[in-house]
Amino acid sequence: MNGNVLVDTSVWINYFQKANRDLSEKLENLLSDSQIFVPKIVIAGLIQGAHSEKEIAVIANFLDAFKIVDQKEDTWLKAGKLSFGIRKKGKSVNLIDCYIAVIAKEHRCSIYTLDRHFNDISKELGIKLL
Question: What element of type H or E holds 5?
Fold first, then answer.
């Protein structure tokens, strides 16, 4: 599986907790076969949920290991419009997840996530989920 992949917070948490063997194997394959993109907001979320300084140090190493991406000038505007469009269809999604999806689209990434509501986001935005 080659290409650009944005790895969502839910996957990293499961990976670090060693909660799912299949997930860990899939992520390790992606780490060796794909360019991994990590939005700054995902790093902040992981640090927020850390349980120790050691975990924070591991997360800080992401800055050297992966392509760290941030917003463009109109990323939040696009995220708000995406959320609005989904809400008009009777669904509700987290604005931060819309923001992450917009960043993925801007960088031509597929998204690896465990969050099911990304299905609604991907249909609206036209991005691929793994």
Answer: strand 4-7
**Stretch (H or E) spanning 80:** helix 75-88
84 vs 98: CA distance, rounded Å: 10
Residues in the chain: 130
Give the three-class secondary structure for 68: strand
Rounded distance between C-alpha atoms, residue 8 and residue 94, angstroms: 13
In three-state form (DSSP H/G/I as H, E/B as E, the rest C), the secondary structure along 13-48 is: HHHHHCCCHHHHHHHHHHHHHCEEEEEHHHHHHHHH
Which positions ≥6 away from 66 have C-beta within 8 Å? 36, 37, 38
pLDDT digits (tens, 9 = 90+) for 88-121: 999 999 999 999 999 999 999 999 999 999 999 9
